[in-house]
Amino acid sequence: MMIKYLSVIALIALLFSFANCENWSVNVGDAGKKVFEPNNFDANVGDTVTFNFVDGNHDVIQADTFATCAKSALPNAYSTPVHAGNAAAPAKEVWTLTKTGPLYYYCDVEEHCAKDMMYATINVLDAGVAPKVPGVKAAAPPTTTPALTNGTAPPASTPPMPSASSAVRTDKQISVAFLYVALLSLACYFL
Ligand SMILES: [Cu+2]
Fold it and tell me: Separation of 108 CA from ligand 1 center, angstroms?
């Protein structure tokens, strides 16, 4: 019983640390212009940024400082492949903002960074701090549904004669799923 409560607490902690409450949209390229639009906005930790490759051949590479055309030294520095722009059906890349502070990025295709000043900033604020310079809001990117197994693997196949105990377990899993959705809404409301 104790382990079950601990699982729920762990789930809540996970939710509050990873609840994606906002997804911001940045267009990469614009009708022949080598730009990120918008190129400077505030977001909150836990938010996501979706890059839409709408025009030209570009990529997104994290830098350590503003207007620097060199990849960040961080081991987990963000980078995308080069995408060919397509306004009707743009390739999309998602950056999850896991740390507070300014993030810098640029395009390293040809000399877009050095010659065309194709670089930009995202100011990542603490959760709950209202952005002063909001970006462009977009629909949330597709997320994977976490497995609700309480740490144990689900049975490989459904038993032919479900017993009363398995029915109870299913009810509990459904309750946990409802709890999860409710908490996600709450976390997004308050953060
Ligand atoms: Cu570029």
Answer: 6
Compute the distance from residue 72 Cα to the ligand 1 centre, in Å. 17
Q: Kindly state whether residues 89 and 134 are assigned to the same domain.
A: yes
Same domain, 94 and 173: no
Residues 38, 129 within the same domain: yes
Task: Note the pTM of the prediction, 2 decimals.
Answer: 0.68
Residue 119 lies inside a defined structural domain of this protein: yes
Distance 60 CA to ligand 1 centre (A): 8
More confidently predicted of 34 and 2: 34
CA of 118 to the centre of ligand 1 (A): 7
Average pLDDT over residues 78-103: 98
Please indicate, yes or no, whether residues 74 and 159 belong to a single structural domain of this protein. no
**Distance from residue 58's CA to the centre of ligand 1 (Å):** 4
Q: Which domain holds residue 171?
A: 2-16+149-190
Q: What is the DSSP string of 5-58?
A: HHHHHHHHHHHHHH----EEEEEEEETTEEEEESSEEEEETT-EEEEEE-SSEE
* Lowest pLDDT segment from 2-11, 93-102, 139-148: 2-11
pLDDT tens per residue across span 22-46: 999 999 999 999 999 999 999 999 9
- Ligand 1: centre distance to CA 128 (Å): 33
Q: Ligand 1 being an ion, which residues bring their Cβ within 5 A of it? A: 58, 107, 109, 112
State the residue for tokens 């789930």.
Answer: 11
Cα separation, 15 vs 105, whole angstroms: 28
9 with 80, same domain?
no
Q: What is the DSSP letter of 77?
A: -
